[in-house]
Amino acid sequence: MAYITSAALAETGYVVLDRYNQELDPKEWLDIEYNDWKSSGDTRFAPLASAFGEIECNGFWNHKPPRTDKDGVWIDSQVEKAPNLTRRAMEPGSNVGRCRVIELQPTPYGECLYNLHQDDNNRLNPDGTGWVVRGFFNLTDDTESFFVLRENRTDPEGEVRIALPAGAQLIIDTQRLWHAATHVGTDPRYCLITSWTSGPELDAYIAKYNGMNHVESVEVPQDVLDAGYAEQARKDAARAAYYAAKGQQAKLAMSEA
Question: Which among 83, 122, 137, 225 is least surrounded, fewest beta carbons within 10 Å?
Fold first, then answer.
């Protein structure tokens, strides 16, 4: 199928934008309402835009009528509490699907690798329209944490680890890349996640903020990497054994709904 895509994402599947001065904004993510919606890790989500403007996080295709991750409806009660986050999500001028803040509890590297997943943004997306990608705006100053990107879930070759200080801004083709976050610390990490439709508006936004599709990976000691690989393999094997005992095949290719 032929979709409208962003050339800036073609080579690596991601871009890193100029860092946002997060200190100038109030901590609006502490005021909005959260759902106990589980994704990759111990998470909650606070939606700003959803399928029908309700405080829920389900995939748009699970509603009636089902549709792709586009045309999200802003939730008045949430937008009122988070006008700056809403403004930032709307700034590119491209179509917005789901928009929400994730709250992620501390997640070691090995757990992050086990949580690696691809999204299903483009289910039901009509041929010839814009490909849905996601923006990730880190809100808290998680200086020891990093986003992990892989082309192959279990192959560390070419793994990219992107630093997550306050104001870090990423756009990722999350249906192409396996992704999850390693969060080091004791407090939760907060990040604004927005589904955007690719097209000239998003291309202009990426250019405006100097999107780079190659960044230097966060350095991690080799013993931490090796322990993470071993933990991922261990948890994958345990999952496979669990499903085998039930006569089923484990679905390790987890998808964030």
Answer: 83
